[in-house]
Write a structure and sequence with these properties.
The protein is α+β, with helices and mostly antiparallel strands and 211 residues long. 19% of the residues lie in helices and 30% in strands. The protein is built from 3 helices and 13 strands. The strands form 3 sheets. An 8-stranded mixed beta sheet has the order 1-3-4-10-7-13-6-5. The chain has a 3-stranded antiparallel beta sheet with strand order 9-8-12, with no helix packed on it. The protein starts with a strand and ends in a 7-residue tail after the last strand.
Amino acid sequence: MNLIRATVQNAAVGVAVADKPKNLKAFLRPGCAAAIWRRQLVQEFQSWVNALEPSCLPQGRVVVQPHKVHTVLASLCETSQTLPCPQRAQLIDDIADLADIFSDLMNAPYLRLRLQAVTSNACRKFHIDAVTARLVCTYRGTGTQYGVSPHGNEPARIFTVPTGAPILLRGTRWPEIPASGLLHRSPPIEGTGETRLVLVLDPVFDLEDAE
């Protein structure tokens, strides 16, 4: 695990890079604004998800208990007519595993799950989400982009998370000081013909605040 710990003008900008999911706990350390699980999905899976018709990509939004994510994803795949195969099962298992890892790390009884096929410049401006924390994993297409900007301007240097690598990001509701100075955005792809498949997980601590 490689951990860069830093603050810039009272802003947390450290990024932890983990080779194993257990090392993502570095995300909780002071000064760490993000953590990336450095991994690459197997080629058979990547070829399958890249070749799917966009209309067959599973999509949905739901607030769910972590142990029910597997069942929810299976239902989303059926609704989207994502045909059963080993790679579909792998996608479901992987999202369920990420839900367990993230909910355990955040000690969250519920998660807000969004799985979305993206073809536009959604969230194209650099920003920090109005959440406690967020996990983003791009299964297809260009990954999330991020950079340091303690004053909220566009970062001078932009990094792109590899496809299939989950990134954990602190939001504006993170309870500790200093606040995050690491901004992110969806990569601008409108007009390129690219279709991304993006998973987003947010911790939910009280169902009254779920929506």
